[in-house]
Design a protein that fits this description.
elongated, Four Helix Bundle (Hemerythrin (Met), subunit A)
């Protein structure tokens, strides 16, 4: 099932059930795509306006990047679901004998790494989206300024949400060096881009009040 092809109502309904997917990772990717789209909307409301003719080329270039980023984040909704299914199965593998334990550990090492990869990708894409929204907010039409602020807030939430899917998987990793590498990568993105998203929100708020 391609979850991105569902209606908003259908996606929300499935998300609320005990079905293993979609979960927090896929929902974060979707929220990130929505945040990016809100930034993109600022661009759409700017292009063609005489008042913003001097930045139109910049806005068009930003919109092309945002179009691609939205598509990538939506694709990660499905990728997150695909990565979780093998992990769910691996937790059910038998571990009664030494051989079974060894095989389970081997499989777990693979699927946990894969399960971390997708939320880390989501985080990176959210960071890229925050960078775009910073520029949309700076150069875009003031009539859509609030949408830039909402977009930044969404991408920050998606960034933080995806991080929890990294941390819950690194906690179970036997390879602690790799786990700490992933944790460090996630924490650095949260530290840098969480602050940048907050700054966009505060700037927007200050201009609106």
């Amino acid at each position: 099932m391609d979850f991105t092809k569902l209606s908003c109502e259908e996606f929300t309904q499935i998300l609320s059930t005990k079905a293993p997917v979609p979960g927090g990772g896929g929902a974060s990717a979707l929220v990130g795509a929505l945040g990016c789209a809100l930034g993109n909307m600022v661009g759409s409301l700017t292009v063609g306006k005489k008042k913003y003719a001097d930045v139109e080329a910049d806005i068009i270039a930003l919109k092309e990047k945002a179009d691609a980023l939205q598509a990538e984040l939506l694709a990660l909704v499905e990728e997150d679901a695909k990565a979780f299914e093998p992990l769910a199965k691996a937790y059910s593998l038998p571990k009664d004998t030494d051989e079974e334990k060894a095989e389970r550990e081997r499989v777990m090492a693979i699927v946990l790494k894969d399960a971390c990869a997708v939320p880390l990708q989501i985080m990176h894409k959210c960071c890229d989206a925050i960078e775009l929204i910073e520029e949309f907010a700076q150069k875009g039409s003031v009539i859509a300024l609030s949408d830039a602020g909402v977009g930044a807030t969404f991408c920050r939430s998606a960034l933080y949400g995806a991080s929890l899917n990294v941390f819950i998987n690194t906690k179970s990793m036997a390879d602690r060096a790799l786990a700490e590498q992933y944790n460090k990568e996630a924490m650095e993105m949260m530290d840098v881009y969480g602050k940048r998203a907050d700054a966009v929100f505060e700037q927007v708020l200050g201009r609106l009040k």
